[in-house]
UniProtKB/TrEMBL annotation:
<dbReference type="InterPro" id="IPR027056">
    <property type="entry name" value="Gluconate_2DH_su3"/>
</dbReference>
<protein>
    <submittedName>
        <fullName>Gluconate 2-dehydrogenase subunit 3 family protein</fullName>
    </submittedName>
</protein>
<dbReference type="Pfam" id="PF13618">
    <property type="entry name" value="Gluconate_2-dh3"/>
</dbReference>
Amino acid sequence: MERRSALKNMGMAFGYAVATPTLLGLLQSCKDKPAYAEWTPSFLNQEQGYALAQTLDVILPKTDTPSATEMNVHVFIDSYMNEVLPEEQQDFVKLKMGNFFDKVLADSGKSSLMDVEATDIEPVLQTYLKKRTDEEETAHSEAISSYMDAIEQGGEATLNEDIASFSFANDLRNLATWAYKSSEYVGEEVLAYLPIPGEYIGCGDLNTLTGGKAWSL
């Protein structure tokens, strides 16, 4: 697939979120890392890393299953942005992230991301994770595509702040969910796990076969 097509198909954000050996290696390397309060990101600065980790725990909070940061999703995403994304996508993610967290700071009245809490982040997430109409999604995609086209051709472009924040929130949720479900603990202990597939039952009832759990991939 051409690189431009890959960027567009993946939303021109975190790209490449498929089960490649590179990504699986990153997931493995993110095991047993410290909690985000003591964590030093490799790609983001300290404030961005702290805010990202808090945002991930709003998206995937601790319930009867671990939170996103307990599964080191924040470490994986930081490493992923640092080691996998090409430079123009790194810059694009930072742009969108900056818009999103500027909104969090503005709405909360706080001046530092180190001071924000889940209650500051949650309403902004709710705003940008709301379902959009087909027309709005098309307009957003076209705006992002035009922006990336201009940047890749060496030009300058601007992107509406709401569109940037909307793209960041949705792409972060998608990548976080993928990383969380791909972690070893969730894959083996939370989802239905069968390391050696056996009999194929095409029309079996999910509650009967797995106790209502989705399959671990």
